[in-house]
Amino acid sequence: MPSELIKTVADYCWSHNFLDVFHKFFADHAHAFETAPEMCSGEHDMEYYSLFQLYLKVYEDTLTSYLESLDCSIHDFYKEVREYDENADIEPYLKTFIHCLLASADYESFYKVMVREGRKSAYNKSRSIAIANAKAESKTRDDAKDSDYAKNTESKTDTYADNETKK
């Protein structure tokens, strides 16, 4: 029998109210992972692990706050998840949710997501710089054209004025 609590929490965790918190976290900290290597078994920069700890705190606080609104403790929720996960007849929606719930607390999963976000951040920065450079070049060309036009107009005006004076 499906757990109503787990289903309710799953629905919340797939909602924008929950996911937007983490999209913002990923975007706010992506810069730290712009040059991070792909996942390897070697040591990582301590900043990555510190951000993982911060992410876990945000995750736990966000989930705990929602559970408290349901009058449920995080401990009771995880206990129910463990019991339900042992059930062989888990509906696919909740099985996927439980898998994602567990992956959310995994450093390797976090690191892979952040490296992907770091790559996107670096790409977006380089693209923004390229666009800004293109706009600056275009403006420089436009300013030069305007300057040439002004000089040509000025010399034509001067020539016209000289011709009028000679008459």
3D structure, described in words:
The chain has 167 residues and is mainly α. It has a domain at 4-118: ADP-ribosylation factor-like 2-binding protein, domain (Adp-ribosylation factor-like protein 2-binding protein fold, Up-down Bundle). The protein has 6 helices and no strands. It has helices at residues 4-13, 16-29, 46-69, 74-85, 92-104, 107-166. The longest helix has 60 residues, at 107-166. The model has no long low-confidence stretch (mean pLDDT 85).
Blueprint of the fold:
Elements: H1 4-13, H2 16-29, H3 46-69, H4 74-85, H5 92-104, H6 107-166
Helix pairs in contact: 2-3
Please give a quick description of this structure:
With 167 residues, the protein is mainly α.
Key traits:
167 residues, mainly alpha, Adp-ribosylation factor-like protein 2-binding protein fold, 0% strand
CATH superfamily of one domain: ADP-ribosylation factor-like 2-binding protein, domain
The helical percent reads: over 70%
Radius of gyration: 30 Å
Structural class: mainly alpha
Give the amount of beta strand, in percent: under 5%
Total helices: the number is: 6
Please give the alpha-carbon distance between the first and last residues. 106 Å
Q: How do the helices and strands follow one another from N- to C-terminus?
A: HHHHHH
Mean pLDDT: 85
Number of strand elements? 0
Largest sheet: none
